[in-house]
Amino acid sequence: MSASYTELLKVRNYRLLFSGQVLSQLGDAIYEVGIVWLVYQMTGSAAALSWLVLCQTVPFLVLGVVAGAYVDRWDRKLTMVVTDALRGFTVLYLAVRYGLGDLTLWEVCVVAALLTSARAFFHPSLRSILPQMLPREDLLLANSLSESAKRICKVGGMLLGGVLMAWGQADLMLWLNAGSFFLSLWTVWLILLPKGERGPADRRAGSIFQDIRSAGREIRGEKAVLAAILLSSLGLIASAGMIKIGLPLLAGEGLGGDGDAYGLLMACFSVGMFLSAALMKKLSRLKILTLVALGWLIYGVTFGALALTPPLLLCCLLVGLTGFAHFLTDIPVTTIIQQKMPLSRMSACQSIWATASFGSESLGVAVAGPLLGLLTVTAGFTAAGGILFALGLLPLIKLRSRGQNRLDRRSLAE
């Protein structure tokens, strides 16, 4: 039987990892808002902001899958320590240069690229180290708790970052983010793993691309993992654009509101995710693919209802349900990879999922923009809702009679 959230936090290693990531995520959220506004203050240029976003994005697309394969060859705890140190010192460099009054745009962009590159190595290590410290039946709750805390920190950190920039405290924003990385480093350093669980001891003779192909074969060999990744990737293509572009249009055109209406809708989206995390203990009794399919079914229903442009209060409820569904389409995929993939390929498999997720979300936003320029918001939500409903219904019909991937019922081989 899986543990409760309170029981999870009694596990020393997980408590250290969780607390360090809470601090790091808070610092990241402060920095995420602050650095954009800082670049705008420095340049007053939209092109400069585009360069910043480009430097924050491209390194992940280049390194995403490759980074995970390298992490599988390295000590994961040491990888997390080194990448935290790199991120801390690079932001510290920005703080010093800003304090001296010599900071330039190209330095900010180079640091942005370095931070994204380090993150490409850090996150596969983070997701792969969890199975080394917790029983498999506890992984879904552990991932849910971590993701919930991340969302809370993001909201609080962005608010704090905005306040700091409004007060002209860009230097404090940079120092806080640098300090959060060093605090994360310290908590990871204190984690005590058994000697045999620190990471892969072998150094493979083959190329890194052979390792990536091997990870791909592992995923293809586990139909449940492959189905979960494909299901969520396709769902993100259909949903991401409507969340990021369709909802603002709905708030402005359909509801006749301003930024406050959109902000309220997104707040409800976050509340829905928190509620999903709170109920994950009960939801974990379902099969993994059932959770993912249920998420896309709810997405489809709520999008279809939003196409009717209901009153603001009902819109808030529907967007809250969408947030609830969004949590179900993400965390279970990470968990099933942790449960079913061998530890020797874990990081590469997580990177494949992260790259597929990032690429699908980006494609969905890129496609939705032009389509919503041609179609009405109502038509966009109707079409996306129909696709997502079918996407959720198909695996429920196909896998109804199968008894695989139950999180707390079956021991899964490495």
Automatic annotation (TrEMBL):
Main subcellular localisation: membrane
Keywords: Cell membrane, Membrane, Transmembrane, Transmembrane helix, Transport
Superkingdom per UniProt: Bacteria
Pfam families listed in its UniProt record: MFS_3
Localization terms from the record: Cell membrane
Membrane topology label: Multi-pass membrane protein
Keyword Membrane (UniProt): yes
Signal peptide coordinates: none
Any one annotated GO CC term: plasma membrane
TM ranges: 16-40, 46-71, 174-193, 224-249, 261-279, 286-305, 378-397
Name of this protein: MFS transporter
Species of origin: Tumebacillus avium
Species classification: Bacteria, Bacillati, Bacillota, Bacilli, Bacillales
